[in-house]
Amino acid sequence: MDTAATASLAQRRLHSVEAAATLIGIGRTATYDEIRLGRLRTVRCGRRRLVPTEWIDEYVELLKREAEAAA
Q1: Which member of 3, 16, 26, 57 has the lowest number of beta carbons within 10 Å of its beta carbon?
Q2: Distance between CA atoms of 46 and 65, rounded to whole angstroms?
Q3: pTM of the prediction?
Q4: With bands split at pLDDT 50, 70 and 90, how would you rate the model's confidence at 9?
């Protein structure tokens, strides 16, 4: 995904799982695994599963805390 498209995604409030994966920098399957494990929270809008921007930030903070604890 190019930089302009990534910047456009960053301005949205709700992201598809695929877009959230791109923003986080992990694959689609890994993102669904994190959702299944409850580490990345989502909301439902009809049949769609969406990830709010603040929950992406929350997930990144979780990863940072885990990295600090492992060091």
Answers
A1: 3
A2: 33
A3: 0.82
A4: low
d(CA 12, CA 10): 6
Query: Would you say 12 and 53 are in contact if contact means Cβ atoms under 8 Å apart?
Result: yes
41-62 per-position pLDDT tens digit? 999 999 999 999 999 999 999 9
d(CA 71, CA 68): 5
Distance CA 16, CA 45 (A): 11
Q: Which is higher by pLDDT, 34 or 9?
A: 34
How far apart are alpha carbons 29 and 37 in whole angstroms? Answer: 12
Spatial contact of 14 and 52, defined as CB atoms under 8 Å apart: yes
CB 17 within 8 A of CB 29: no
